[in-house]
Amino acid sequence: MHLSACCKWAKKSELLDIANPFEGMAAEVKVKKAGTEEDEVFPFTREERDRIIHAFVEDHYYRRYAPLIQFLFFTGCRPSEALALQWKHINRSTITFERAVVYDGEGLVLKDGLKTQGSIV
Asked: Which neighbouring-strand residues pair with 19?
């Protein structure tokens, strides 16, 4: 699809003299549908997760990060989402992730929305 669009643009811009070799090819490519929550990727086994957390707990220099590492593993949030949390996002039964701390080229800024979604309205 993207190659076809590039060739279409090149043809329109008079940079390409031949027919678009990718025309209509996208319709023939079968794309696997996005998975459901049941198909989630788990990069670490429970044993690996526990060993990583234990390594932080036991390490003389890095033990202070152990609670953060546990939080990241058990919630599944990204570090940028954890850093943006405020008490108003936490109640007795839920944590609502709706912001992230990101680098904008000049410094760290608070951004509404998460990496995998648009801004919250």
From this structure: none
78/116 Cα distance (integer angstroms):
11
User: Which residue, 88, 95, 105, is CA-closest to 72?
Assistant: 95
Q: Kindly list the domain boundaries of the chain, sorted by start residue.
A: 1-31, 42-76, 79-121
Question: Which pairing describes strands 99-103 and 108-112: parallel, antiparallel, or unpaired?
Answer: antiparallel
pLDDT tens-digit series, residues 32-84:
666 665 566 778 899 999 999 999 999 999 999 999 999 999 998 899 999 99
Select from 95, 92, 94 the least CA-distant residue to 82.
95
Q: What percent of the chain has pLDDT over 90?
A: 37
Q: What is the pTM of this model?
A: 0.58
How many CB atoms are closer than 10 A to CB 55?
A: 13
Q: In the chain, how many H helices and how many E strands?
A: 4, 2
